[in-house]
Amino acid sequence: APGDLARVRNRFSRRIFPITSTTHSLSRADYARAFLHQLWNGTTARDCIVATSRAAVDVVRTQFEELRQGYGLESGPPSPVVEHIPLGLPVSALMQDESSARDRIRDALGASPGHCLILVLGRISHHSKMDILPLLRALRRVVAQGLDPGKIMLVIAGWTEDRDDTPETLRVLARSLGLTATIIPRPSETGKRELLQGVDIFCSLADNLQETFGLTLLEAGAAGLPVLASDFDGYRDLVDHGRTGFLVPTLAAPAMPGLEALAPLLPDNQYHLVQAQATVVSVSHLASWLAALVADPGLRRALGRQARKRVQDDFAWPQIITRHLDLWDRLNRCPVPEPDALRDVPHPSQVHYARVFAGFSTKPLSGDDIVQWSDHGRAVYRGQDHPAMYAGLEPWLNLDQVRPLLTLAHRPVIVSTLLDRLAGIGLASEAAAFLLHWALKHDLLELCDGVDLRS
User: Fold this and answer.
1) Total domain count for the chain?
2) Is residue 440 a contact partner of residue 447, using CB atoms and an 8 Å limit?
3) Beta strands 413-414 and 245-248: pairing type?
4) Same structural domain for residues 11 and 130?
5) Residues paired with residue 413 on neighbouring β-strands, in sequence order
6) Would you place residue 204 in the very low, low, confident or very high pLDDT band (cuts 50, 70, 90)?
7) CA pair distance 182, 156, nearest whole angstrom
8) Does 403 share its domain with 441?
9) Helix (H) / strand (E) containing 428
10) For the packed helices 133-144 and 166-176, what is the interaxial angle rounded to 10 degrees?
11) Is residue 98 within 8 Å of residue 193, measured between CB atoms?
12) Is the pLDDT of residue 245 over 70?
């Protein structure tokens, strides 16, 4: 987690370097705790959450505000700054031109030259992606207005769950409208690219809060397709309405305090489904723009050309990487406390094991206790025996330090004095304390009960 990484940086680094993390899905009920984890006094002006959409920026900022109000932290610790940088596509994806394969792909789908193919690409799931029924309702309106259903082919491709009857239900519903619906479960990456080259319209009607960006919209734009998408989440950043496609208006789900209370106890797909089913995608607007696009190949081509140009200009990875580099440069210039001022600031959720579990053992080792080498320790010092160390302790223990320790403890010595002498030969306090306790555990040292060195 970024808060834990910031704590490690503050503790061990000689400089406060930027820590950035990028959003993905933001809507799971347990994510508020992850945001709370970043509200602490070790967060600096160089710590940043990169939101992939403007909608995600609003979510992150509002979530921090909610946490501050709920926990009484209005004037409390800082939170990371929030910046907007979208995702992108590799240059190779923008250079591909598979138009020569278009006829072959359409033939494979069973489409004639006069067909208008509408592609829906994404998880075929009303729980976690989108409800496709509003698209079928809109197509029913278009057909009722006189459009020949025989000219339309609906292609639905994406991940499906085993034994899920949703794909077959969609096929049956489309058939009842006189439409041909082709379902392609779990297409390969090559298959996805070919579909994008073979269809005429890309449609994505996200209504689910787990959606934050919408990479498939960029892929469709790169393929020169007009995009018909819901005006929802990051989609509105990717479609220039009327220029590269159309955004279908949406109505937000109402406040549901009961669902919000239950959400942490429910499977995440259940509360996402309820929210999505109360999020309205305008069927009337969708039908109007579908009718316009299906009827006008010239409009489709014009929008597709602009979509491809916009993706090339604004969403190729080189441009996105440059924005990240610029962000890191800006963050590096932000004033922050000196490293020493943050080094001993613990994270509030960090477990202080020595204090929290103090009652587990009989007692702690005291600085006034006295230790000296044991018979086994003396044998190790003389090369007559060897210490044993388990794998996994290498970051915390160096066996080369055992001999200097035994040298310092060849006669009784007060623990505080021994620790000072270990510091004098270059051991950090934590490393010295661990070495001392490990040596006592493995009978290299022993406590000297009844010995008084103060006289």
Assistant:
1) 3
2) yes
3) unpaired
4) no
5) 371
6) very high
7) 6
8) yes
9) none
10) 10
11) yes
12) yes
